[in-house]
Amino acid sequence: MFVNRRDVQIQWGDCDPANIVYYPRYFAMFDDSTSALFEVAGFSKQDLVRKYGLVGIPMVDTRSKFYIPSTYGDWITIETRIEGIKRSSFEVKHNVYKGEALAIEGFETRVLVGRDPDNPDKLKSAPFPPEMVAKFTGSELRS
């Protein structure tokens, strides 16, 4: 499995009055981490648009499990991987570490989408390109 790790320092604006990260901020960090995963894998946003005709990878489901809080100034490591790929949807897993300890598990379901060829004003799911499947999973897509 292809994995991307990125270190993030918790900023003042990430925290609530109790000085712990306000939970929606983690979802923004997860979104950035998913984008970074694609970028590091060699599939930049520009590639998604120009090469593959996609308009995005919107999230259709998300959830998290919180174990250890983080506060202003803390450094966390977000480890992101694609756990599974179907025809156009895929499962993303984010493990957030504070030091060596698992602090959060984040889960996303996303879909590759492009313009509907029959009606360009609408969006339509798009199949996962084989080279993306190979990069993220190390194997070919199975139906």
Automatic annotation (TrEMBL):
Q: Does the record carry Hydrolase as a key word?
A: yes
Q: Which UniProt keywords apply?
A: Hydrolase
Annotated InterPro entries: 4-hydroxybenzoyl-CoA_TE, HotDog_dom_sf
- Domain of life according to the entry: Bacteria
Q: Does the keyword Metal-binding apply?
A: no
Which PANTHER family does UniProt cross-reference here?
4-HYDROXYBENZOYL-COA THIOESTERASE FAMILY MEMBER, ACYL-COA THIOESTER HYDROLASE YBGC
Protein's UniProt name: Acyl-CoA thioesterase
Organism, by scientific name, is Bradyrhizobium campsiandrae
